[in-house]
Amino acid sequence: RNSEAHAILVAFAPYEDPEIAISIVVEHGGSGTSVAAIAAEILNSYFSSRDVMDAPAAENTLAR
Length: 64
Fold this sequence. Notes:
Order of helices and strands: EEH
Distance between the termini: 51 Å
Largest sheet: 2 strands, antiparallel
Oligomer: single chain
Shape: elongated
Radius of gyration: 17 Å
Structural class: alpha+beta
Number of helices: 1
């Protein structure tokens, strides 16, 4: 895209109890709506992979 406007989007999720916040800036990208697909992909990846990741070890726990 060849625009003088910069695309800026800031989001957090989930609404009731946020645990992730993102900010996307694309120089000369047009409007913020043009980067909404990027934000959706980041949020989808975060929420789909958090169930797969191992939970961090509790403090003072011996890792094996």
